[in-house]
Amino acid sequence: MYGALLLSISLALSSCNSKPDTDAHEQEVHAGQPKPAPVATPPSLRDTLQLLAHQLDTVRRRGCWDEDFARLMTVHHAGAQRLAAVEVSRGQDSTLRALAQHVLKGHERDNDVLTLALARQPPSGQEYRPGNAKDPFVRRIAAALAPLRQPPPTPGPLDTDFATLMQVHHRSGVALAQTELAFGKDAELKDAARRIVRDEQAEVWQYQRWLKAHAAVPAN
């Protein structure tokens, strides 16, 4: 009987001590596991446009009209696609989302032409000096990119901001393409530039019409 009592007490003590041991073990296991990474805040449309302006400023220019246009326009198109991706993922208006999808798909055709142009041998020698601020080509490129650095106010909602900033982007793209038409020699690139002027001017008009219908003030 005395032995049975000791066994009972031993089992009771063992049972009481089991939970703390288990809790301690679980804490050790969880302590060794990596903590989940914080969720990054998605970039705003304005930040996306300003990033594009910075990237365009750092594009390497070799002094060849066609090649430098192709490099700049490739980066410029990528910026439009990032803006469109934000609208597709977070926008609410079906018309603007459709326009954003059009940007994502339509720029792929131009990107193929631009990539092929960059793969070809550039002309021998320089056609202009990239560091010469007085050169007509340099001046026109600078004027085309300037609006990207000072976009209009974007107080929201996101759809309105997208339509506003895409106007700024497309007007800049039209100016870049018109510079290629004025200076470039490559027939395929000039065809692409004409298409960019036509398509992006038409899209600017669509954004203006949407903003007017939604009582927003179009960007200057």
TrEMBL record:
DUF305 domain sequence ranges: 66-211
Where composition is biased (Basic and acidic residues), the residues are 20-29
Looking at the record, which segments are called Disordered?
17-42
Q: Where are the transmembrane segments?
A: none
The record's annotation in InterPro entries points to:
DUF305_CopM-like, Ferritin-like
Q: Name one Pfam family in it.
A: DUF305
Name this protein carries in UniProt: DUF305 domain-containing protein
Q: State the organism of origin.
A: Hymenobacter coccineus
